[in-house]
Amino acid sequence: MLPYTKEIYEVFSAIGDPKRAKAQSAYLRNQFDFFGMTSPVRREAQKEILRKEFLPPKSELHLLVRDMWNQPQREFHYLAQELAFKYARNFDKNEIQLFEHMATHHSWWDTIDYISPKLMASYFKKFPGQIKPYTQKWNRGKNIWLRRCAIIFQLHYKDKINPELLEEIITPNLGSKEFFINKAIGWMLRNYSRANPAWVVDFVERYPLNNLSKREALRIIS
Question: Is residue 194 pLDDT above 80, yes or no?
């Protein structure tokens, strides 16, 4: 454990609630340990850590994030991804390797749904030439979390969502029996329906979507 991580451990340990930690772990199917604190309490505790003047040098980002990601407590993972987002304006082209590591280790929806529409989304805005090589690679692979990343990275793009790209990413995932894939498809289409409902209706009519995906896609329109 690096000194930076150890300091955070001491802060989080001091305010953690073992009873809450047990309940939080159960909520995520006992896959992760917790210190035991609500999100507001954690964010208050880490406020000083994430102040601009106290941020570690950008050159240390990969090492620190990976060290925190190696820790068993989920709060470390939440802090690590929020720390990474602090450097969004200064992302380098190799940052995607770090985000892939985060997405494929200690993977579950709670971190994926930050990594993709926050970290990966910011990265792809800065390096649009990387979008197709990576989303196509993820879609060809078997890792469901990287597939989910490909589907939802445009989640907050609003009217800037690229419908051709969205269709290209979603269609290889049609027919999946994986809940987290089908939910992501519906979630992404639902968000896009706010900006382009006609396109979403047409998409739903043209493709055999899973019932969950279809229901989520049309929720606002209906």
Answer: yes
Amino acid 91: pLDDT: 98
Name the amino acid, one letter, at 138: W
pLDDT at 113: 98
Q: Is 89 helix (H, G, I), strand (E, B) or coil?
A: helix
The tokens describing 55, both together, are: 């941020």
> With contact defined as beta carbons under 8 Å apart, do 142 and 112 qualify?
no
* pLDDT(222) > 80: no
- The token duo for 150 is 């490909």
Chain position carrying tokens 């029996």: 177
Q: Are 37 and 16 in contact (CB under 8 A)?
A: yes
Show the DSSP H helices in 46-178 as ranges.
61-69, 74-85, 95-104, 109-114, 121-126, 131-140, 144-152, 163-170
Give counts: helices (H), strands (E), the chain: 14, 0
Task: Provide the token pair at 47.
Answer: 């406020």
Give yes or no for a contact between 209 and 183, defined as CB atoms under 8 angstroms apart: no
d(CA 101, CA 45) in angstroms, rounded, equals 26
